[in-house]
Amino acid sequence: MRFLKTRVSDNFLELRNDTSPPPLSTTLDHIASQVSCASPQRFNRMLALRLPEDIESRLDKLAKATGRTKSFYAREAILEHLADLEDLYLAKKRLAKVRNGKSKTYSLNAAEQALGLAN
């Protein structure tokens, strides 16, 4: 039996049996469809970036080759990796709490027993 981990807040992780589908609003497919189908009018904030010349050149070549804008690819890259960066910093924060003795850890066996999943 597999379980999916869902971050609900900085201090709480939800484990859910993957045989029960998550709500549509939290599925990766739904999120991806919102990102890829979003029209430029939906974005109302602007961010200026300073990029190394070689990266800007690569971005420019990609944009020209595909007919998309450089902004499109910059936005896609940010949206794609933002969750990963948030997870990384959350993991570092949790690790610091564990190392400082401010957070308790559990073995896999103990977690399975507590959740009623032990064989």
Put the structure in a nutshell.
By secondary structure, this protein is mainly alpha-helical. The protein has 4 helices and 2 strands, in the order ββαααα.
Please explain how this structure is put together.
- The chain has 119 residues and is mainly alpha-helical.
- The protein folds into two domains: 1-37, no CATH class; 51-119, no CATH class.
- Helices cover 51% and strands 11% of the residues.
- It is built from four helices and two strands.
- The protein has helices at 28-37, 53-66, 70-99, 108-114; strands spanning 3-9, 12-17.
- It has a two-stranded antiparallel sheet with strand order 1-2.
- A hairpin with a 2-residue loop joins strand 1 (3-9) and strand 2 (12-17).
- Helix 2 (53-66) crosses helix 3 (70-99).
- The longest helix is centred in the C-terminal third of the chain and has 30 residues, at 70-99.
- The chain is elongated.
Uncertain segments of ≥5 residues (pLDDT<50)? 24-31
Q: In whole angstroms, how far apart are the ends? A: 11 Å
Series of secondary-structure elements, N-terminal to C-terminal: EEHHHH
Tell me the helix content: 40-55%
Largest sheet: 2 strands, antiparallel
Side-by-side strand order of the widest sheet: 1-2
Number of helices: 4
Give average pLDDT, whole number. 77
Integer-rounded radius of gyration: 20 Å
According to DSSP, the number of beta strands is 2
Broad structural category: mainly alpha
Percent of residues in beta strands: 5-15%
- Gross morphology is elongated
Task: Give the tally of structural domains.
Answer: 2
Q: What oligomeric assembly is this protein in?
A: single chain
